[in-house]
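Summarise this fold before class:
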Amino acid sequence: MRIVILRLGHRIQRDQRITTHVALTARALGAEGMLLDSDDAGIEKSLDEVKNRWGGSFYVRRITSWKSEIKKWKEAGGKVMHLTMYGLNLPDAIDEITTCSLMIVVGAEKVPPEVYELADWNVAVGNQPHSEVAALAIVLDRLNASSGKDSLSSRFTGGEIEIIPCRKGKEVKSK
């Protein structure tokens, strides 16, 4: 499954850390990239540095119109999932989310009502207030599991360094 994140409503002064964590979570759990509805070059730069150091091919692309990105995605045959605490609870929706191309909309500030209408699915993780980072992690893990993948066993090619898992301490090796 091809998964791209659309980070909607990123406020440069307020959301930098959370948006970076959305991108890091998406990268670690199998998304191919993130479209950023903001002119924040810092997020793009941070993720390029992560990719260069740790490997993989994750990208961040700044966009100017979230609406046109959603429409282009759907015109190309993709489906759109909007993460919102007001949607169907994930266990009730996961079986019908079978597609080859999925855009997951992750909002920062108040999401425009039109997103709820454009999305093929409005999906919640527990129908309670929660972190968008945690919700994204759960959704990506469940989507991967439903397609037979273990998102916690991803291997990244390239990069300069890698972690060597160990029971105690920390071990990092240069490639």
Observations:
- The beta strands are 2-8, 33-36, 59-62, 79-89, 101-107, 121-124, 161-163, 172-174.
- The chain has six helices and eight strands.
